[in-house]
Design brief:
Blueprint: H1 3-13, H2 28-36, H3 43-54, H4 61-82, E1 88-90, E2 94-97, E3 100-103, H5 105-115, H6 120-136, H7 140-144, H8 147-164, H9 177-192, H10 196-200, H11 202-212, H12 217-230, H13 235-240, H14 242-250, E4 256-261, H15 270-274, E5 293-295, H16 305-309, E6 315-319
Antiparallel strand pairs: 1-2, 2-3, 4-5, 4-6
Helix pairs in contact: 4-11, 5-9, 8-12, 11-12
Length: about 325
């Protein structure tokens, strides 16, 4: 990834509004490609492409794979505990897998700040998980593993339906508040000696509820989901959760990412409509790409919704730093 693209990606992660590349940073080949597409796509052509896309049998391929993976991972914790096979012990925040320690990076940072003490097993588990999610794409955790993400996904659909009927008025906040919350949660852990974020994290609450049984904390999750349905969709993930920021930083140079090729792109914006974090797809707007091939930014959850909906195969998963794979 070009240096200016990486810096733009990281600045978006902490809440900065996407910026158009400076004229000096735009390769000549990219300018020529934009020029060649002028007047190419008519309304009739767009309608034809939409009809063909609606008939594709694989239009939900990545969504189905993601849902299956998310359910399988969380079910593994449940079944291992229920049948006491000790294959996977603990929950998503901290666990042992076949005897090896794993610790969620954000949870581990909270623990270290709260207790001002570093335990070797915690370090081993944290480094292991950090390497794992760096390899798998950072925020891949959010869309492929986090149980709250699945609930929020259905909540988003309901929110959009209510908004379309004008029964609710959607509210948005500045994305930079997530960085502010990140600092607040860290300072609270340091000052109080408690991992405050873990008490209210729907990821941990749901993971423990699935494994050990429901508790009163689920009322908080229900209230949070209701807020997202009735007021601001994906509010927790977009504006509060420090897990996304932590893994976004980890995955900023990951070999697993989405890549945008602008040559055949229609710039119609369907990908941005289905994206949980649409600012990362700002590059699909005409004139906003960094290069002919542009890696999608660090805040991307690698959910694959844009890959499924793209009518021209302009968005695809990239495995490795140079290799392109569909």
């Amino acid at each position: 990834m070009p240096k200016h693209c990486l810096l733009e990606s990281l600045s978006q992660l902490v809440g900065r509004t996407p910026h158009k590349p400076a004229p000096g940073d735009v390769p000549e080949a990219l300018r020529d490609a934009y020029q060649a597409k002028k007047g190419t796509f008519t309304k009739a052509y767009h309608q034809q492409v939409d009809e063909e896309r609606a008939q594709r049998s694989d239009r939900h391929k990545w969504r189905n794979r993601r849902w299956a993976t998310l359910i399988a991972v969380n079910l593994l914790f449940v079944l291992s505990y229920y049948f006491d096979v000790q294959l996977v012990e603990g929950a998503l925040t901290a666990s042992r897998v076949i005897g090896f320690h794993f610790a969620d990076v954000n949870s581990a940072l909270q623990v270290m700040l709260a207790y001002k003490h570093v335990v070797l097993n915690l370090v081993i588990g944290t480094v292991t998980v950090a390497l794992l999610w760096w390899l798998l794409g950072g925020r891949t955790f959010c869309s492929w593993v986090c149980p709250y993400h699945l609930l929020a996904e259905f909540g988003e659909k309901l929110h959009d339906r209510l908004a379309a009927k004008k029964w609710i008025r959607p509210v948005t906040f500045h994305r930079g508040v997530r960085t502010v919350f990140y600092v607040i949660f860290a300072l609270l852990a340091l000052a109080t000696g408690y991992t405050v974020f873990e008490f209210i994290s729907p990821t941990g609450i749901l993971s423990r509820a699935l494994i050990y049984g429901p508790g009163l904390a689920l009322l908080w999750v229900a209230a949070l989901l209701a807020f997202e349905v009735l007021v601001s969709k994906r509010a927790w993930c977009r504006y509060v959760c420090p897990i996304g920021l932590t893994y976004g930083l980890l995955g900023s140079t990951s070999p697993v990412r989405l890549k945008y090729n602008m040559v055949n792109c229609h710039h119609e914006g369907d990908c941005r409509k289905v994206c949980e974090v649409p600012h990362v797809l700002n590059v699909t707007i005409r004139g906003k790409a960094c290069d002919i091939d542009t890696p999608i930014g660090a805040d991307c959850t690698r959910c694959g919704a844009c890959v499924d909906i793209c009518p021209t195969d302009s968005l695809n998963y990239q495995f490795g730093w140079a290799k392109k794979t569909n």
